[in-house]
Specification:
seven-stranded mixed β-sheet; globular; alpha+beta
C-alpha cells in the first residue's frame, strides 16, 4: 500500500523528470514543495492532462463518492481498478500522476512497527500512478484521488506486500494522455512500472508516524 510519502523538491525538478518537453500550462515556481510527510486527507499537487496540455492542481488525497458510507479510500489496486464499479470511471477519465521523492512503509520488528523510507537508487523523482475524480481544478474534498498500487516483488516484499505503481517517464506520459484508452492504460499498468531493483530503502525515525511532523530529518537513515 502507500499511506504516506514525501514530495519535497521543486515542481521544475519534477517536470524535468518527465524527460522531454511537453506542452504545459503550469506557472514557473522555483520554490521547493518542502513536504516530507504527506498524509491522506490533505491536498497535494497532481499532474494531469487537459486539452493536450499538462496541468498541476492541488487535489485532496482520498476518494469517497456520495454512495460510499465508509471512510475515504486512499489506494486502488492496479489489478482490479479498471473493472470495478467504483474506480472504472476514474480509470477511464481521471488518470493522473503524483510526484514524489519516496514513500514510507511500516514493518513489524521486535514487537514494534518500524518505518522505512523507500526511494529510487539514482535519486530521481518518482512518478506515481494515480486516478481521481475530474475536474481536478474543481476538486471536491470527498471525491479526490487515489494512488494506484501493485503487488510488491523481490526485495520490496521484505517491507510490504503492496507498493505504489511507479512509472518510467515514457509510461507516465502515456498514462496521462487523453488519447490513451482504459484498456491501453491496463497494459501500461502491467508493463510500465519500475522493477524492485530500481529502489533502495532504510529505516527512519518513528516520528514520521505523526503527520504533524515535517522536516528532512524524517527521511534520514536511522542512527543505531
Amino acid at each position: 500500500m502507500c499511506g504516506r510519502y514525501a514530495q519535497y523538491n521543486t515542481r521544475e525538478e519534477y517536470l524535468a523528470s518527465l524527460g522531454e518537453e511537453t506542452e504545459r500550462d503550469i506557472p514557473y515556481d522555483p520554490e521547493p514543495v518542502g513536504r516530507y510527510n504527506v498524509a491522506p486527507g490533505t491536498r497535494v499537487l497532481l499532474l494531469g492532462e487537459r486539452h493536450s496540455q499538462l496541468h498541476l492542481d492541488p487535489v485532496h488525497w482520498g476518494y469517497a463518492p456520495a454512495w460510499w458510507n465508509k471512510p475515504p479510500l486512499i489506494n486502488a489496486r492496479s489489478e482490479t481498478a479498471a473493472g470495478s464499479r467504483m474506480f472504472r470511471p476514474l480509470w477511464e477519465h481521471g488518470r493522473t500522476i503524483v510526484f514524489a521523492d519516496g514513500w514510507f512503509e511500516w514493518k513489524q520488528q521486535n514487537g514494534l512497527k518500524q518505518p522505512f523510507f523507500i526511494h529510487r537508487n539514482d535519486g530521481n523523482p518518482l512518478l506515481l500512478a494515480a486516478i481521481g475524480k475530474q475536474p481536478f481544478e474543481n476538486g471536491n474534498d470527498l471525491e479526490g484521488f487515489l494512488i494506484v498500487t501493485a503487488a510488491a516483488d523481490e526485495g520490496l516484499l521484505d517491507i510490504h506486500d503492496r507498493r505504489p505503481l511507479v512509472y518510467s517517464p515514457d509510461a507516465a506520459r502515456q498514462w496521462l494522455s487523453d488519447n490513451t484508452t482504459g484498456k491501453e492504460a491496463e497494459d501500461i499498468a502491467r508493463e510500465g512500472g519500475l522493477a524492485a531493483g530500481e529502489f533502495t530503502w532504510h529505516p527512519v525515525s518513528r516520528a514520521v508516524g505523526n503527520p504533524k511532523n515535517q522536516g528532512r530529518e524524517l527521511i534520514e537513515p536511522l542512527t543505531q
